[in-house]
Amino acid sequence: MLKNGVLLLLSFFFLSGTAMSLEVGITREIGEFAVQHGGQEIHIIRNQDTEAMITPDFARTSRPCPPFCAQPMTAAEGVDTIGEIELVQFMQTQLKDGSGVLVDARTPDWHQRGTIPGSINIPFNQLNRAQGADDLTLEDSLARLGVIRPSEAWDFSNAKTVVLWCNGPWCGQSPTAIQGMRSLGYPAEKIRYYRGGLQLWLMFGLPVVYPDGRLREE
Predict the structure, then answer these.
(1) Which tens digits make up the pLDDT trace of 180-198?
(2) How many Cβ atoms from other residues are within 10 Å of residue 59's Cβ?
(3) Range list of β-strands (E), 85-196
(4) Any domain includes 211
(5) Which domain does 122 fall in, by range?
């Protein structure tokens, strides 16, 4: 009993130390962790400069609406909306073990400017038939998510859990992708919507990488 108590106490101090050794932790328990991106190990750690400001590209308050309009909290019925802590947990578990995929649903020009580490780019218009995606495009896109089409019907039996994101609460790209996936039958319980997107990721001082894995300087 005493041994177990000592182990629990040591575990507590180890976890706390991970975050407490940094002035700016991710949570009280998590200071940093690593993901794979572009064949490289990327450390997810917040900017330790307590005077740092968000990059000007994402500091604007007023973008023309449409198209940059506030998005609903729910992208589609049955799809969970998540925040930063849930995203971090996903990255540490399902993304790490391969049962999950993190999707940057923005168009390639946005993706090339910088993305959340661990993400793959599947633009929203390649997941939504109403946005012009044809059968071949949909098959290629969904294959990256574990979905096959052996006949006229889609086979979602091995579909991965997917978190989709775009630029922020004012961006409709990932909601459009999610709606397209649901219209094809992708299980709602296997889709997550990170509504905060890159804007909230940056606001927390978290790192952004280029597609090849190079860290973007903020």
Answers:
(1) 999 999 999 999 999 999 9
(2) 11
(3) 100-104, 119-121, 161-165, 191-194
(4) no
(5) 44-203
